[in-house]
Amino acid sequence: xxxxxxxxxxxKKERIITSCDSKDIQSELNDEGFKKAASEAxxxxxxxxxxxxxxxxxxxxxxxxxxxxxxxxxxxYLLVSDWNHELSPWHNPPVFGNEEFGDGASDTLDQIRxxxxxxxxxxxxxxxxxxxxxxxxxxxxxxxxTCEDExxxxxxxxxxxxxxxxxxxxxxIHMPKSGCYYLSLGRKxxxxxxxxxxxxxxxxxxxxxxxEQTGKKHILKWNDGGHFNDPDKRxxxxxxxxxxxxx
Length: 247
Prior knowledge:
Layout: E1 2-9, E2 14-21, H1 25-28, H2 32-40, E3 43-50, H3 57-67, E4 73-80, H4 83-86, H5 105-121, E5 130-135, H6 137-148, E6 154-158, H7 167-174, E7 180-186, H8 200-213, E8 217-223, H9 231-246
């Protein structure tokens, strides 16, 4: 999976941008600048994004740097090519159009563990916060990943696809393992003729209540508009808050 990694060397405030396949991150650490930036990271952000989001990543990292100039954020963006397959934890029928949802999330999580977390975190003598965050189906994937593995200290799920059939039942069995969560949704998102997607609001409230019951730090924010209103702005707000909660 193609990755774009943003990081910085602290004393120089020098930005390092590394683009490679996730399986090549270990070899990229032979580059002294990238290795130094990785070793100095104060927080590691894992962000599955659609390939169509690539043009917006630089602006997002600019804004995160401006908000947290005193810490070194390493942001690993995974460019997902097969959205409905690579981010879906199990098969589901189409909810719009004819494209079904696959079961590739486990493979994606394995790539994150083996190709990203293992080589990057091996450079740290002390543990650092690891955040996973995403929008829409990537938000669902992020929530699911925190139930599968304890390695994530925080999660931002922005307009997550929690209408996904079987997800609420799964969550009640496997339970979220991260310490803090940021959730948000557009107020108009449940107002749809699609019977499956109408459940998104009630399901997200139920997830927020579960986080409260299990003693997690959590935020649930309601935004104006529907699913496609200001996604970059909403995502950035979620990232800023979850970073603050995780430090």
